[in-house]
Design a protein that fits this description.
The complex is a heterodimer of chains A (461) and B (481). Chain A has 20 helices and no strands. Chain A is mostly helical. Chain A has one domain. In chain A, α5 runs parallel beside α11 and α9 runs antiparallel to α11. The model of chain A has no long low-confidence stretch (mean pLDDT 89). Chain B has 481 residues and is mainly alpha-helical. In chain B, α4 packs antiparallel against α5, α6 packs across α9 and α13 runs antiparallel to α17. The radius of gyration of chain B is 21 Å and the shape is globular. The two termini of chain B are 40 Å apart. The chains are: A mainly alpha (461), B mainly alpha (481). Chain A: InterPro entries: NADH-Q_OxRdtase_suN/2 (IPR010096), ND/Mrp_TM (IPR001750). Chain A: It is a multi-pass membrane protein. Chain A: Belongs to the complex I subunit 2 family.
């Protein structure tokens, strides 16, 4: 709970800093605040978890682990932000403040124990993001993205609320513990409840960008500033997914016969839509958007075949995915600053100009593709393993075909970096600040470390 | 000294070291020294190896405790020849590149690939095996695409996606097997003692077979191979043909045969027919080639087709022949690709029509080329003879017709290889030919070593067969029906 209070105070404090034009203090204060919040989470690790505030939130290990992941990802993204925000807007304080608020919403979503908190968390997280996506006021694509995201987001929240209401109508409670009791003990579960499940499922699929509710994802990811895209596709996506998983694992497991076919269909469509559309993209950023859809599909495996091993495998997969995405977007920012374009062609010849940067991006791509000794491989292995545990061989074969398709577009950028020459002269190096080097280094080392010794993550949960 | 983990570690450390070396001369010397060091470290295994069926020098650590996956390596009679082949060929491949100016990254990738290959040949846990299997693919992709020629980007992307598709199905099968045991594990011993139902074996067979058949490659999964071999740099082609395709055959022996014996037996007719088609088809295409490298690429399909057929013949002779012929093929194909590379450097072409008459200005090359070529064809007293004889004996015991058509490889091989020799070495020099310098220095050294082993293994094949015999007999005996 300390973490959430810290972040709320931090957000307001940042606004005051902006008011008094203390621009240079913004980043250090945000980072320190986030680290303090992270400290609160780590200290809570060994404490016994009880639902707080009349069962509103429950910081169990599961919530703590994912909160820590979200905060680490945010800190890495914030480290990248120093020059980035200055180049696109004057009001930097709002950025930091909104990101911090959004992060706080994400924490609530990972730890909710009551539907009211789920709703509040998702709204805090999303409302901050609606503004962040559209923060480049003069850029039409940014505006379009913000409007699209807002309309779609509001729409999906509507679904979510409908679902919650129907479930409340059937069970008479918002509390996850009592809902579980209702599901376990009632012989005749009201049809309203089933309707509620379906609507909730739609709403949550919107949030994680699973097909066929994914249509907003590419445009919003494409139109938003790159760092915000990085934040959305890592922290927000993971948090929404964790909320999804929490509901299903805590409450809806006994009804799995009802929702598994639905979710299975969603998963398969998501895999194919994400992978096949990503194949034909010419923009790296858009490719990452579609790839994030397909990764949502892989993560859904853990829910489709829900069990004891699901939580650790989601943590592994989400960590691998966050690290690789942060590397990818950080590199994209650096490259775009140099070439002004987000297309694959702008990566041409990067290996000759910046061998280390190219190497790190290659690690990230291999991790996303699931090549051994990277964290992504372990994540994929665990997800496949979960599905096989459920004897769902067909789904596994579909996943395998998709993994093979995915390698094609992940290698695309590697091909551009290593095997194609750029038209610009070789001396044109990309200036990287120390913060970039630190972030890229940490993310690359962690990707390899989790891949070589995954027990670090797997033993947590 | 006989620590397998150290053997795996040296190439990895060497790769990290070589990454930072920019200067070509220094890079290649460091690469040569480290690869010789690896070779030196593999000698204690040869000396200390007891030629029986047991698994020796085993080392095992818990890798992922939550999943009970081990890092388990060991050596037996089937893997030892391949480990020796890998560690013996890598120094030769490094040495053969001394005429070029590669930076340290090239050699780093070679070393890294060596580590992956060794892990494949040593792994006793399917998880470790899969990791090695994929790790060997990444460096060779970069070697071929960075230093290749022609349409290298498209060709190598096809190669990568193709092989990755195969291996991901193998991963699916491995995960399936992981869930079959009472105690979940991917240890070789527990996978072999699973007693899978016949249906389960059938589909496990196809999943594994796809991965191995693409790697070997067995007809009709070979379409990536000629292009990739042709467009790759000489060193890359040697790695691909000399060592990498042995991963596939080794996989058949180590994993597929013991895990899915029923399926192997019931499908062996189909597979053998595919192998034989591949042999004849590739030989005929090889005969029509004008590009020397492409010719050898197709000949390689024919040769490994016979090796795979030997494995599926389910006879001691066939499998023994396969083990021996893997080593032989590695030697001869590295030699021949090196000779093609030498000639290409001197004449700036690979077209057979532009070659001819090289025997006169290059007598030393003509001699070693002839011996290596005879080894590839399978002339008595060269290594290829013993290998092909054993393979055909195995096939004959399985079915006469397979041996008849498989035996065509000897005749057809002689036809296209002698045509190759004739078009290169005999006849007259082209009127506008540049003056040719005979091989010397590192070129002579590499080819002499290969020539020596071509004859040595032809005269005393027991050097390899003795190592593997007990393990092969045991492999066939322990398969339960």
């Amino acid at each position: 709970m300390g973490a959430i209070i810290t972040l709320s105070i931090l957000g307001i404090f940042l606004l005051y800093l902006g008011l008094y034009r203390a621009k240079n203090a913004l980043l250090p204060v945000t980072i320190v605040g986030a680290l303090v919040a992270l400290g609160f989470i780590l200290f809570q690790w060994n404490e016994e978890a009880v639902p707080l505030y009349h069962g509103m939130v429950l910081f169990d290990r599961y919530a703590l682990a994912f909160s820590a992941l979200c905060m680490l990802a945010t800190i890495l993204i914030l480290l990248l932000s120093k020059e980035y925000f200055r180049t696109i807007s004057d009001n930097i304080a709002e950025y930091y403040c909104l990101i911090v608020f959004s992060l706080m919403g994400a924490l609530l979503v990972t730890a909710y124990h009551n539907f009211a908190m789920l709703f509040v968390g998702i709204e805090i997280m999303s409302v901050a993001l609606y503004i962040l996506v559209g923060i480049r006021k003069n850029d039409p694509s940014s505006n379009e993205a913000a409007l699209k995201y807002f309309l779609m987001g509001a729409f999906s929240t509507g679904f979510l609320l409908f679902g919650i209401t129907l479930m409340y109508g059937a069970a008479g409670t918002f509390d996850l513990g009592e809902l579980r009791n209702y599901v376990m003990t009632t012989n005749e579960i009201s049809p309203l409840f089933y309707g509620g499940i379906l609507l909730l499922l739609c709403g949550l699929c919107f949030k994680i960008g699973a097909a066929p509710f994914h249509f907003w994802t590419p445009d919003v990811y494409d139109g938003a500033p790159i760092l915000i895209t990085a934040f959305m596709s890592t922290v927000v996506k993971v948090a929404a997914f964790v909320g999804f998983f929490r509901l299903f694992s805590m409450v809806l497991v006994p009804l799995s016969e009802f929702w598994t076919p639905v979710l299975l269909t969603v998963t398969i469509i998501t895999l194919f839509v994400g992978n096949i559309t990503a194949l034909v993209q010419t923009s790296f950023k858009r490719m990452m958007a579609y790839s994030s859809i397909s990764h949502a599909g892989y993560m859904l495996f853990a829910i489709v075949s829900i069990g004891a091993a699901s939580a650790p495998s989601i943590l592994m997969y989400a960590s691998a995915y966050c690290l690789a995405s942060i590397i990818a977007f950080a590199t994209l920012i650096a490259v775009k600053r140099k070439t002004g374009s987000e297309h694959f062609e702008s990566f041409n010849g990067l290996a000759k100009r910046e061998p280390l940067l190219a190497f790190i991006l290659t690690i990230a791509m291999l991790s996303l593709a699931g090549i051994p000794l990277t964290a992504g491989f372990i994540g994929k292995f665990l997800m496949f393993n979960n599905v096989m545990g459920n004897y769902n061989v067909m789904l596994l074969v579909i996943a395998a075909v998709n993994a093979a398709v995915a390698i094609y577009y992940y290698l695309h950028v590697v091909v551009n970096m290593y095997f194609r020459d750029s038209e610009e002269p070789l001396e044109q190096q990309i200036p990287l600040t120390n913060a970039y080097k630190v972030v890229l280094g940490i993310a690359a080392v962690l990707t390899i470390a989790f891949g070589v010794y995954p027990d670090v993550i797997l033993k947590l949960l | 000294m006989d620590n397998l983990f150290i053997l795996l570690l040296i190439p990895v450390v060497a790769a990290c070291l070589l990454c930072v070396v920019k200067e070509p001369t220094r890079a290649r010397w460091i690469a040569l020294l480290t690869s010789l060091l690896t070779l030196a470290f593999s000698i204690p295994f040869l000396i200390g190896f007891v030629p029986d069926a047991s698994m020796q020098f085993e080392q095992s650590w818990m890798w992922i405790e939550t999943l009970r996956l081990q890092f388990h390596i060991g050596l037996d009679g089937i893997s030892l020849p391949l480990v020796l082949l890998t560690n013996g060929l890598i120094p030769l491949i490094v040495l053969s590149s001394f005429g070029k100016r590669y930076s340290g990254v090239f050699y780093a990738l070679v070393s890294f690939m060596q580590a992956g290959l060794l892990l494949v040949f040593l792994a006793r846990d399917a998880f470790s095996f899969y990791v090695g299997w994929e790790l060997a693919l990444i460096p060779i992709y970069f070697i071929c695409a960075l230093w290749g020629e022609g349409d290298r980007i498209r060709v190598n992307l096809k190669f990568f996606v193709y092989t990755f598709l195969g291996s991901i199905f193998m991963l699916v099968a491995l995960i399936y097997l992981y869930h079959q045991g009472v105690v979940k594990s991917l240890e070789w011993e527990s996978l072999v003692s699973l007693n899978l139902s016949e249906d389960a074996q059938r589909w496990v067979f196809w999943a594994f077979f796809l991965a191995f058949a693409i790697k070997i490659p067995i007809f009709p999964f070979h379409t990536w191979q000629p292009d990739t071999y042709t467009q790759a740099p000489a060193g890359g082609t040697m790695l691909l043909a000399g060592i990498m395709l042995k991963m596939g055959v080794y996989g058949l022996l180590r994993w597929l045969l013991p895990i899915a014996p029923f399926a192997v037996l019931s499908y062996s007719h189909i597979i053998l027919i595919l192998c034989v088609i591949g042999i004849v088809y590739a030989s005929i295409i090889a005969f029509k080639q004008q590009d020397a490298k492409r010719l050898v690429a197709y000949s390689s399909i024919a040769h490994v087709g016979l090796i795979a057929a030997g494995v599926f013949s389910w006879q001691v002779e066939g499998i023994q022949g396969a083990v021996l012929q893997m080593v032989n093929h590695g030697l001869s194909v590295v030699g021949i690709f090196f000779i093609i590379d030498l000639l290409q450097e001197r004449t700036a072409t690979r077209s057979l029509s532009a070659w001819g008459g090289f025997a006169k200005p290059m007598p030393r090359l003509a001699t070693v080329f002839l011996i290596i070529l005879m080894g590839a064809i399978g002339l008595p007293l060269t290594n290829g003879f013993i290998g092909e004889f054993l393979l055909l004996k195995g096939l004959f015991d399985y079915g006469v017709w397979y041996a008849t058509f498989g035996g065509l490889t000897l005749i057809l091989g002689a036809v296209y290889m002698l045509r190759f020799y004739q078009k290169t070495m005999l006849g007259h020099l082209q009127p506008d030919a540049k003056p040719m310098i005979d091989i010397k220095g590192h070129e002579l050294l590499v080819l002499s070593i290969i020539t020596f082993f071509t004859i040595f293994l032809g005269v005393w094949p027991k050097a390899i067969l003795g190592l593997s015999e007990a393990a092969v007999v045991n492999l066939l005996n322990q398969i339960k029906f």
